[in-house]
Amino acid sequence: MPDLTDRALDTAVQRGATFADVRQTRRAEESIAIKSGRVEGVAFGESEGFGVRVLVDGAWGFASSNRLTVAEADRVAAEAVRIARASATALRHRVQLDERPPARGTYRTPVLEDPFDLSVERKVGDLLAADEAMRRVPGIGFTEVRYDAQREWKTYAASDGSLVEQEITHVGAVIEANAVNGDDMQRRSYPDSAQAAGWEWVRGLDLAGNGERVASEAMALLAAPQCPPMRTTVILHPSQLYMQIHESCGHPCELDRVFGTEASYAGTSFLTPDGLGTFRYGSELIDIVADATAPGGLGTFGWDDEGVAAQRVPLIEAGRHVGYLTSRETAPRIGRQSGGAMRADGWNRIPLIRMTNINLLPRPGMSFDDIVADTDDGLLLATNRSWSIDDRRLNFQFATEMGWQVKGGKIGQLYKNPTYTGITYEFWGSCDAVADERSYTLFGTPNCGKGEPGQNGHVGHGASGARFRDVQVGVGKW
Amino acid sequence: MSGRDPDGLELAERVLRHAEALGATQAEVLVGETESRLTRFANSEIHQNVAESNTMVNLRFVDGRRVGCASTNRTDDGALRRLADSAARIARLMPEADEAVHLPGPAPIAYVHGAASAATADATPEFRAAAAREVIAAADAAGVQAYGSFTTDLEHVALANSLGVRAQEARTWSQLLTVAMGSAGEAGYAEAAAVDCTSIDAGAVGREAAEKARSARQPVSVPPGDYPVVLEPYAVVDLLDMLGYLGISGLAVQEGRSFFEPGKVVGSPLVTIVDDAADVAGAPVSFDYEGVPKRRVPLIEAGVCREAVYDAQTAARAGRESTGHGLPAPNPYGPFPLNMVMHAGDASRDELIGGLDRGLLVTRFHYTNPVHPKLVIVTGMTRDGTFLVEHGRVVGPVRNLRFTQSYLDALAGVQAVGRERRLLRGFLGASLVPALRIGAFTFTGATEH
Q: What's the ipTM?
């Protein structure tokens, strides 16, 4: 609706904005939830509106509305300007944006089987089959199957002449079996991930084919001994390593956090600009990139939500911290141009620096199985169950669903409730093996929280698995 | 009160008519009209400042034992007809459920006083900026920087169902929070929340955080281990949130994933927690998101589990009445206690701290997450002011610690309860909580600040 976006921009500029942009977004969502054979909920939702962001006197203002009329465009743009003027009464540094050519073009997620065209009946049928497969395992307590699809149509226009249109489609799914015995409860899930794709990705997961395995593993966990406390070698399966990357590399590389703008909510970062290029983040095996061009990633797009083209930005190179996730406002403060990481959770939220696809690059040499076979004594940990990290992203603790003892290169005893903890740069510094591309998997995290008011981010993480030495495992009293 | 005209009930009834025309055996329409405003500051300046106007219409369409849900924020008649079509189509493609669908019938609603404030509904960006400047001035005076946010929200909630339920209410919420931080990273936290934003003393919030940050300079390390603790209300609210999230729900009980059993002793005799949406010291509301009147529910009395909370479906399954704790449909997570109130004790803050021979004073928790849901074992970090207490006196700041602790064991270890309480935002709702002294809390790691 160019009338609306043009009108909002014109009004903002006429009222004093030195820069303005407007995003008009329509989002369609479908969710299916199944619990223990019962279809608990099927829902379709749509939300549409526009948000106007303005710079006035060097300060930001933002207003948004679901009413798509020219009169409302005037009102909302004027409100954004008034808000910016209020911001300017408590301003110590005028906002400066980096220069970039006006953005122009279109982008669309490649989709083979449109999840919104496929009948609900067919999707529910496939998901019920997965649930039934889990419930065939004797003794299982309760099961869950969840599926979500989201499509956004976004128009971005700015007072510098930018005009971008994008259609982004994401799908996600998980099956989960829970085994219960008295006070104990063990969960096993698969794959609890999401992709920029269509139903073909969900079909390829073979949820029904994995149902019995998942439920059997939950029952095995119930009978397994508690993971003992010790310092040992840890091998992280990609299904856990992706979350380690998310919390201990993705978030601390957000340059807005580094500059304190998330300090009152999610915290700050230990990766300060004085160490850029020199700080030893991890071992020489660690190469991590923010890649908004990775096919299938939840952090893949054509342009970010301030019109910066998708790109691949090195964050960690041979273990050294070399880059950040940046915006047009933050990048100039470290002498760089925006890396295109500004994303908003819908029309009614401002863009924030968000992860794109934060990927630990695989290393040629050892497969994941080779790493296990090369390990004399340690633990293999798979599938994230819980996560926590301090407000500068240093002290972390994760729990996984599964833990196996590794002895003499062989997988042995299963443990329940495995946990591990450490300090981020020490942990990554202890990495002595990263698996090759054969086990490389791009995971999707569709529930990354940030900002006030809260925003839910869809981000991606590529990982192949890795080994870490001298790690504390088995935390807490059990 | 500003914002849009409160025509949500008329909108809900229009959708209901569309659903009934499509053959719904039952239907429920929830309309939420919101005006949300938030001013955010960091490094002692306003850096984000936002406003949102929205209307969400949520339809639950029942066809026998089949249910379809759809939502939209378009309110023209064409969009509302498409909404009904979508929900009906979904319902008719569903397999028949084993159990009947239970929407609640009408019941008299005793509307509470104090659910909304005109001052909050009408709060301007200039009003919020002035509050931010007061917080910043307090930080300036203490030689630290201010970070935080000030929220002023208005929501008109309206609900209609085909069994005759009609409910509508305006609700407002305001919250000012701040972290004050010094040049070496020393930090302090303060927060105030209220239905009426003019009752929040921004200067006092700023001074509390700034003073705490000043007293947190040059922290020392203490080794992880078991310590008796005093938890400030900002930390206690996390205990209540996790108990609500993991266990005090009829669905969690029915699925066998909850610690909660009526009659089971889980806390010290000093621990009493109710869910009371009529408490004017909290954030009062009159009905839940199914239009059921809110009932005061004793959750834990003198350490003993009493009642979980129920929505219409879980209540029918349990052969009882809903307690008025339903969330918007579809809701696979079950009912939730949104208005938890922990009874106050008789100890002043100084008396709570005075009872520690050697322990820790914890301002707040950060990034907590369950490690074992049924045992309510939770891990997280301390943040924004952690102090060593010896012989009943605060002797100085310590670096932040990681805990891995059963919150049930923490409740059982409560030795004293503060007599002052604070209204704080929780995970989903708002809780009224005191400070607590707990005999032992297990810290399992440390960090560098």
A: 0.96
